[in-house]
Amino acid sequence: MRLATPSSPLRVPLFLVIYLIPLPIISMAPRRRERVSPSSQGLAPGERLDRDALAGNASSTWGWVGTEASNTSEITTNHLLAACGLLDPSRPFCRNKFKETSRASSTDPLAIKDTDDDVIVISDDETPTCSKKSCKSNPFCLNYLGQDKWENDEHQETFKELAKVGSNPSEETRIDDLPVGLRNLGATCYANASLQVWFRDLAFRAGVFNCRPLEGLEDKFQESPIFQLQVTFAALQESKQMVFNPTKLVESLQLRTGEQQDAQEFSKLFMSHLDAEFKKQPTPSLRTLVHDQFEGKLVYGTICACQYRSERSSDFLEIEVNFKNNQKLEDCLEFFLETEKLSGDNQYCDSLQDATRYTELRELPPVLHFSLLRFVYDLSTMERKKSKNTILFPKRLRMGHFLGNSTQRQQARTASTDEDTYELSGILLHKGTSAYHGHYEAQAFDPRSGSWYQFNDEVVTQIKSLGDKKPKKVEVDIESDDEGESKKQATGTKRKKKLASNSRKRQRVDDSEVESPERRKPYRPTPTLAPSAESSHISSKDAYMLIYTRVKTEGNLTGPSRKSKSIESTPEPPSQALQVIGRLNETHVAACEDYARRVKMLEDTFAELKLKVQEVYCNWNLSSITEDWVVTSRKTLEGWLSKYSMQSVLSQQRVPDAAEAHDPASSAAKQTIMSVEDILCEHARLDYRKVAQMKVIHRVNSL
């Protein structure tokens, strides 16, 4: 503040300042007499202000008004710069902290002291300290505009994004023979889960691959469901991508992608369709493939007290099982085979005598399906609902205990034999509380890798425990003998999956009200160990179908079929299906190579751009007001460092389209233009009120 002197009388109006003073409670102070304010010494109407009469006008930012410029036409650029205080020699010129000379001279007393944003270091040096906070409004400090991101290569990813290089197709590459997932096309999770389980049946897969087009129908064969199933199975086996799109298979089956079907009904209809196609094949083993692999026989009979017996045989592809909460599968089969007494009004035979009705399993297929009746009809609400009862099922099931008549079953229980022993090979799960919609997943043993996997459409994850994921008590470790070690390994696996989930996520179309897990990056499979002998049953509230495979015996040794499965020869896909997958693999490899080439080119371009940008911001500072300089805005420099410099290079490398090739003006109009309107007034001149947003740079480095 400058005080008035006798030679320069104060000519500004005075304002009355009233101070509020608290009054004592006990006594009142005597009232003061009001002082008369002095008369105003302001300008008279029409009188001009004589700025030369004011003290200090020689160095005033507005000293040129009335002396050097009497009207607007006489205002020069230097007048505007003076009004903004840019010609004030007392302003500090901060050294460039990014210049090599500045970095090297650590003992230079004028070197910039790089401090935290909110910390001002007080030293004995008279040189003003340069910091982000203290130099925020200094037009001659150019040190905190985003240069550090160029020094640390943080803008390299931004450069790729601006170049619109796209997603990296190599992220879709299959890793370490991990099973391939199937893309969900809207509401096709029920089909994806079944296909993943059927694919792991090597005999069934070989049968599908051995189907050939009938004579004269070669063209139509490629549009048939059986050929599209061959292509899908070939992709699951030979694809170089981690996800395959089964659109053509779904279209050939005429499935509605937006409408979810019952998985059990789909399984029956699809198997019926395949059986009809297999029966058209000339090879006898193919004509009976469904019968030989999945079909069993049971007998419904009635025996009267008069010893009259009537029986009716029936073929089945799956055994339907009713179950109560926490009931074992073996107990459900016992209940299924229990005899029923017919008496009273239910007497049998012409003479109406008591009788016994029975059900017997006569023949079992190599692959046995149990359909759990989880969807029931509620008579109280007259609606279909999902049962959340827990089912307990073993990893090994001795079906010899349930085969034949009651005498044969009793003998099998007393005999220590592994004949007709089955091992769990797949579980189909239904996630959700409703019987009308939800999400289907599968847990299946993969014979190629000898490991168990969870198949959730595109997401394929190696698992160490079967059944539901959340309840810890019902999980059964199938890869460790030690219970404590198994829990430790399971925790480590979950942590790996969580970290992989954070590293890469993928959005999928969900057809369920249940929140599905996000896309996880697969990790390297680990060898499967021997199953734990302590835990014999697996528990699940979501399982709706169980798949068991007959254990194969080798010589006199009887054991689990896992080892024999893993050493079986992998079926070879037909040439036509392989050609389709081969073209997809070639396209994927070419896309990966093209992406790598474009990224390498962008990295080289960025390296060149970095050197040019560094050359600019390392030499744009002024050391004296006498140098040639221009005024720009902080926003412009920050924008050039963060985005505009990269956009300018990319616009030069971009190939113009047809319209721009014929209209050069259109192409020029798309070049990046940086504006400094934020520091201009309404007359398009420098605005002295916006000095804090101004920056002064050397003219040779003007942008």
Automatic annotation (TrEMBL):
Superkingdom to which the source organism belongs: Eukaryota
Keyword Zinc carried by entry: no
GO biological process assignments: protein deubiquitination; proteolysis
Enzyme class of the recorded protein, top EC level: hydrolase
Domain USP, chain residue ranges per copy: 180-551
Compositionally biased residues, Basic residues: 493-507
InterPro entries: Papain-like_cys_pep_sf, Peptidase_C19, Peptidase_C19_UCH, USP, USP_CS
Catalytic reactions of this protein: Thiol-dependent hydrolysis of ester, thioester, amide, peptide and isopeptide bonds formed by the C-terminal Gly of ubiquitin (a 76-residue protein attached to proteins as an intracellular targeting signal)
Keyword entries, A-Z: Hydrolase, Membrane, Protease, Thiol protease, Transmembrane, Transmembrane helix, Ubl conjugation pathway
GO molecular function terms attached to this record: cysteine-type deubiquitinase activity
Annotated region described as Disordered, given as residue ranges: 466-537, 555-575
GO CC, one annotated term: nucleus
Transmembrane region(s): 12-30
Gene3D superfamilies documented for this protein: Cysteine proteinases
Enzyme Commission code(s) on record: 3.4.19.12
Bias kind Basic and acidic residues: ranges: 466-476, 508-520
The family this protein is said to belong to: Belongs to the peptidase C19 family.
Protein's recorded name: Ubiquitin carboxyl-terminal hydrolase
Organism: Tetrapyrgos nigripes
